[in-house]
């Protein structure tokens, strides 16, 4: 046995067995090449992805104004998963419209791509777009302001409006520029506003029918400041009788001698240094006090007042009448007493005459 192990034939046999084992191990499918198989499977997996890409123009945009095309389009790509993922993340390709050889007018043009890997298949939506190519024109316009004055609180009015900037640059097709009737901003004032309006407002280019013209505005918004104020002044009040009454001897008293009135400049100009305040006496039968709402009493002469109401004492003159009636009654009594005195005197004279006659007898 020892001779067999030490012989050269034994080692040759062992080497042959090992060689045969390695041969069968390598050649058997699914064994020994798992890693290479996985790599191969990964490279053959396909993937699909859809995303949005900016649409570019190949045209002389300084000379022509082009409309009708979308800013972005959707593209769907399909191919090896790793390549699809990389393409979606980097977007290292272009979708474009080639308009260089097209004349003025409308054209239906196919969207093309450049830069996509040849291993990828793709589809673009939309595939075709209709563009309108016109001569380009640029013009400056002053900005007008249009707002609803009815939203101002009663008595308030606007001052000089500030627009910054007060002009905008309008770019578009020459035919569209010709349609522009005015460039305006339309600030929306809160209802009942009492303070200055100060906001950024969108600029619009309108035709004579008030419809928006398809042009580009620079800037697209402007700063609009509308001062909103109310005028006021201090005036004395004159309490005046109003309403039907048989009594014409009313007198009025109030601790308030002057008030501050508020309103528009025209309302202030129409009132001097004093203002008449009517006091309704149609329901007054005796001395009384009334609270006069100055807003109701003054009507549309002012917007409002400070204070908004005053207390007025109304004297009917009834106390004087009672005094006169008393005096008249006293006079009658005096006259009666005088008559009685005269009668007594006459009686005394008669008695004296009778005495004289008796003496003569």
Question: Could you give the topology of this structure?
Answer:
Layout: H1 2-6, H2 8-27, H3 34-44, E1 46-58, E2 64-67, E3 72-80, H4 81-90, E4 94-98, E5 105-110, E6 112-114, E7 121-125, E8 128-145, E9 157-158, E10 162-164, E11 167-173, H5 174-177, E12 182-185, E13 197-206, E14 216-218, E15 221-226, E16 228-229, E17 231-242, E18 251-253, E19 258-263, H6 265-269, E20 274-280, E21 288-293, H7 294-298, E22 304-306, E23 309-315, H8 318-360
Parallel strand pairs: 1-4, 8-12, 17-20
Antiparallel strand pairs: 1-3, 2-8, 3-7, 4-6, 5-8, 8-11, 9-16, 10-15, 11-14, 12-13, 13-15, 17-19, 18-23, 19-22, 21-23
Q: How many domain units? A: 3
Total beta-strand segments: 23
CATH topology of the largest domain: RNA Polymerase Alpha Subunit, Chain A, domain 2
Strand percentage, roughly?
35-45%
CATH class of the largest domain: Mainly Beta
What is the count of helical runs? 8
Low-confidence sequence ranges? 30-35, 319-361
Helix content: 25-40%
Concise synopsis of the structure shown:
This protein has helices at residues 2-6, 8-27, 34-44, 81-90, 174-177, 265-269, 294-298, 318-360; strands at residues 46-58, 64-67, 72-80, 94-98, 105-110, 112-114, 121-125, 128-145, 157-158, 162-164, 167-173, 182-185, 197-206, 216-218, 221-226, 228-229, 231-242, 251-253, 258-263, 274-280, 288-293, 304-306, 309-315. By secondary structure, it is an alpha+beta fold. The strands form five sheets. Strands 2, 5, 8, 10, 11, 12, 13, 14 and 15 form a nine-stranded mixed sheet that branches. A five-stranded mixed sheet has the order 6-4-1-3-7.
